[in-house]
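User: I'm designing a mutation panel for Fe2OG dioxygenase domain-containing protein and want to avoid disrupting the core. Could you give me a predicted structure to guide residue selection? Please restate the sequence first so the numbering is unambiguous.

Assistant: Good idea. Sequence first, for numbering, then the predicted structure tokens:
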Amino acid sequence: MASTIPLDTKTLKVSPVHPPKITSVKPLAESTGLSSLPSIYTFTHNLHDEPISDDPEDSIPIIDVSLLVSGSPEEQSQVIYQLTKACSDWGCFMVINHGVPESLTKAMIEVFQEFCNLPEEEKQEFHGNHVMDPIRCGTGFNPSTDKVNLWRDHLKFYTYPEFHSPNKPVGFSEIALELSKRNREVAIVILKAISKSLGLEESYIDKASNFKLGLQIVAANFYPACPEPERAIGIPPHSDHGLLTLLVDNGISGLQIKHKGKWINVNLLPNALFAHIGDHLEILSNGKYKGVLHQALANDKATRISIAMPHGPSLDTVIRPAPEFVDNESHPPKYIEITYKEYVEFLLSGKICSKFRLDFEESKAIYAS
Ligand code: OGA
Ligand code: NI
């Protein structure tokens, strides 16, 4: 019921005529006496999708990326084989020994927390009007089309090919720049190895996606503790656009991936990166590797923070299945051709269409306008 929302916070301006424009869930989560979830946050979970967690058969593959750089030829081929299995069976894996200092990741999480703590007026300049604005903060994917409010706040900014970043709080942009650079180096090594794992030359993905001008985003998520987590959702099921996302969090669980029809908790190993395949690698491989479906749950114990870093093609690239995976008789192309920019715009504007996104049935029901 709308009347259960506190009307006195600066972010939740309610006028009798227009529905409230909610830009942040944080003040609501922190308001005293909030014991139940306001109905605008109620998300219907699919009760048939029970998570599983303890089955050793269902543990997410681990890839030691240092072996790709300095391992023997045998070790390198073994990791490429592991990648083929991980990408085709799972669409995701944990990355260890990647060389990004833990202190840098922690600094990013801390400075993002400070960003979230800024007064709402100070964040206002980043609310953005267009889905492609290079710096945007807010709450849902797109508050004008979302049917359910999400239990998370986010800040997204483009860090490559041009670096954009909020200039506050102090130190934010320096930390973000360093983390983005280090993260990109890891992505480049992994994408080369993924090219090989597909039986392609190692620079295939780089060339096909014009990666030198490829879009890199930092998508920071803030999930405050929630009074009724089972009735809310942090981020509903989706796959990421782009080629590969590398994600870290503050050690609080909440991320799940769908594997063989079941949800699996992703509990990151210490200082590991969680790598998952995006839609454009699915397209490039004509469906051999799948953009993995994932979601973020709310919890009632502690604030969860995650920093997801998607790496994509350049915005004007039309990604299409590599000819190696297409023959017009038994393996016709499964995807329509569209530039990366158009794809991202469609996605972020809520006009999700099953022609573009094959595994998107669950979220479509929420976001279709
Ligand atoms: C995302 C995402 C998951 C998480 O930002 O696209 O899926 O764990 N985040 O926050
Ligand atoms: Ni995601």
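For picking mutation sites, this is relevant: The first strand starts at residue 51 and ends at 52. Residues 248 and 256 are 13 Å apart (CA to CA).
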